[in-house]
Amino acid sequence: MLRLAMTTDAETFERVRGPLADRGIDVGHVRAKERALRVSGGAAARDGAGDPDEFADFDVGLVYPTRLMEGAVVDERLGVPWVNGRDAVVTSRNKAGVLAALSAAGLPTPKTTLVSNPVDESVVVDAASEFSYPVVVKPNSATRGVGVATATDLDSLLGVVDYLNLIHDYRATGDKSFLLQEYLPDARDYRAMVVDGAYAGAVERELDADALAAGRWKHNVHRGATARGVDLDPRARDLAERAAAALGIDYLGVDLLATDDRLVVNETNARPTVDAATKYEDGFYDRFAALVRRTAEEE
User: What predicted TM-score, i.e. pTM, was given to this entire model?
Assistant: First the structure.
């Protein structure tokens, strides 16, 4: 049986274990963070006191660890090809880079400007002058909606930027950039899954009526939204596939925003959460398993 290493033990791990086992793929967890990892100087077959080598006997990995420093060590210890390796994770994490690549490929995206700190306040003022309020402000490489805000006027925008500047003043902060992005009111929020180049299903992320009445607008599931399986129309399916092709990423979550007259790619995720199988197309796990097997054979 093929052995697949996963560096997460959250929802996706639990959901994929059974369906992949039914298709001849044994899924195991390799802990990549918040631990000690042997790098050199002794028998690399063990970590800790007498523990067996947890990195042995894997054939393929899914997905490269989110912490790149630890990931380099885990990558060497495993010695396997990845469904979405380091390059895919780094590419998708850079929101501005993704939008620039997709825009260059002719795909629709929200109007967006990258601000690279430190800059004078005048630079932010000039950049904001190209937008209508409210405007979205988001860290360039955060996930799960962390740090994303809307500013309703210039004063509130500069206040948000003041807080970002406090974080970016810390010398160890790696990414000192943020995005200004147009706000699309009442946009429907979809996460489309693309597996090995083909659309494999989608969910619509929705806030309940109480959250909307309270002024909530971020549709991240980790912020309380509900993911409901939907059947996307051919135009949205095609856009998701074209986004994955433009980025060259085999296994990708593509976030789409849809209004009455626009459909845009907002973000992508090369470490997408797998939802319940009922929310995806028939054959989702067959295609997923085939991608895992093909990746293992590319070693």
Answer: 0.88
